[in-house]
Amino acid sequence: MTTSYFIDSGDKIRYFFESDSVDADGALTVPVEVAVNKLGHALHWLDPVFREVTFRPLIQVGNEWHACRADTHHTPVPAPSQSRAA
């Protein structure tokens, strides 16, 4: 994985793998179930299930998002979403 793969993932859903789970040619060296570290980052915008959960009223407190503190964010928004692999 290159640095740009991570940096440019803000508006995409990308897979991130454990460092020793992929060989130099990009082939998995372990089963995919243990190779994936996390999925990120735009899950809350691009995946319908994550979007529904992220933007439901129960997640908000007034006009603030649980993930943000009012004293540090002038315009609270949900933090980039990631899902850790099980």
Any overview of this molecule?
The chain is of the alpha+beta class and 86 residues long. It has one domain. It is 23% helix and 22% strand. The protein contains four helices and five strands. The protein has helices at 3-7, 32-35, 43-46, 48-54, and strands at residues 13-17, 36-41, 60-61, 64-65, 81-84. The strands form two sheets. The chain has a three-stranded antiparallel sheet. A two-stranded antiparallel ribbon has the order 3-4. A hairpin with a 2-residue loop joins strand 3 and strand 4 (64-65). The model has no long low-confidence stretch (mean pLDDT 77).
Spell out the blueprint of helices and strands.
Layout: H1 3-7, E1 13-17, H2 32-35, E2 36-41, H3 43-46, H4 48-54, E3 60-61, E4 64-65, E5 81-84
Antiparallel strand pairs: 1-2, 2-5, 3-4
In short:
By secondary structure, the protein is an alpha+beta fold. The protein is built from 4 helices and 5 strands.
Helix count, per DSSP? 4
Overall pLDDT confidence: 77
The string of secondary-structure elements, in order, is HEHEHHEEE
In the residues, how many domains can be counted?
1
Over all CA atoms, what is the radius of gyration?
A: 16 Å
Largest sheet composition: 3 strands, antiparallel
Structural class: alpha+beta
- The helix content is 10-25%
Beta-strand percentage? 15-25%
Keywords:
86 residues; three-stranded antiparallel β-sheet; two-stranded antiparallel ribbon; 4 helices; 5 strands; elongated
